[in-house]
Amino acid sequence: MVRKVTALAVLLSLALALPVFAGGRPEAPAPSAEETASLERTPQDPRLIRPGQLTVGTGTPVYPPWMLNDDPASGEGFENAMIYELAAELGFSRDQVVWNRDLTWDQTIAPGPKPFDFSIRQISVTAERQQILDFSMVYFQPDKAVIALPGSPVIGATSFAALRNARWGATIGTTDLDYLENILGIRNVQVFDDQAGTFQAMQGGLIDATVAALPTALFVTAVQVPETQIVAILPPDPNDRGHGLLFEKDNTLVEWIDEGLEAIIQRGVIDELTRRYLLPSEAIPEINR
Question: How far apart are CA 269 and CA 75, in angstroms?
Fold first, then answer.
């Protein structure tokens, strides 16, 4: 009996001497500042949405030539091919790139927290957007293209003044609408909720023409609305600095991502992808003023 009581007392004293942990398991010590710093600029960077993977936002659906077959993970298309090149430059394997397609366009360009490290979906860098969001360096600056149906009054136009004689439409919230109003000086542009609505209006005879980035125009006229055509190429919008990767405001990953972008640009990756996916196969008239 004495032995049993003594053994029980020893066990109780040992139990009381052990630290108490939530859930019955010892908690892992928080990483030190030195350990955290050593992981930065690696695939385990603690600043990533999910360390160990690169979470990239894009749209639903995605369109050629930016991404083919509505499949970002295929790597076929200008933007997704570029992302896989960038990821490799930063040290990520292909299977560590995860695509998040949950946000609409309006949600993507709105201020506030984002469920991705950055987003890519032909997002133009503008001064207005930079007030509420952060952007990478510009990686592509597209020309604008005039799209119309045969018989439109814009066909054969050789000046901005001649273009103003037509009825124009554009999608709300886009730099295409800004271009029509601020660069071409078009008044009374008809505004539609999405690109499909814009082209439906054209097919229905409500508008004579619209504008889009040249790569988008190539796909629209070849696949989406093949009865339309590219009438002319216009100069880039000086207020549209080009396409950049979008980050939530004050995201400290931007500098690291910019270094990766700069590296693949210097290697000629962007030029090669532009030739492969984004250039027309035939000459198109240009209107410069």
Answer: 14
Helix (H) or strand (E) run with residue 52 in it: none
pLDDT at residue 5, as a whole number: 37
Dist. CA 243–CA 228, nearest whole Å: 25
For position 27, what pLDDT does the model report? 56
Alpha carbon distance 38, 226 (integer Å) = 53
> For residue 1, what pLDDT is reported?
37
CATH of 144-234, one of 2.30.22.10, 3.40.1190.10, 3.40.190.10, 3.90.1150.10: 3.40.190.10
Cα torsion 82, 87, 93, 97 to 10°: value is: -80
* Nearest in space to 231 (alpha carbons), one of 289, 140, 144: 144
Domain with CATH 3.40.190.10 in the chain: 46-140+241-277, 144-234
pLDDT of residue 241: 85
What is residue 29's predicted lDDT score, i.e. its pLDDT?
59
For residue 170, count CB atoms less than 10 angstroms from its CB and return exposed for 0-12, middle for 13-18, buried for 19 or more: buried
Task: Give CA–CA dist 109/132, Å, rounded.
Answer: 9
Query: How many whole angstroms separate alpha carbon 280 and alpha carbon 231?
Result: 13
Residue 62, exposed/middle/buried by CB under 10 A (0-12, 13-18, 19+)? buried
Third-level CATH fold of 46-140+241-277: D-Maltodextrin-Binding Protein; domain 2 (3.40.190)
Over the chain (289 residues), the average pLDDT of each successive run of 10 is: 38 40 48 77 97 97 92 97 98 98 94 97 92 97 93 94 95 91 94 91 95 90 91 86 95 98 97 90 86
How much is the pLDDT for 41?
95
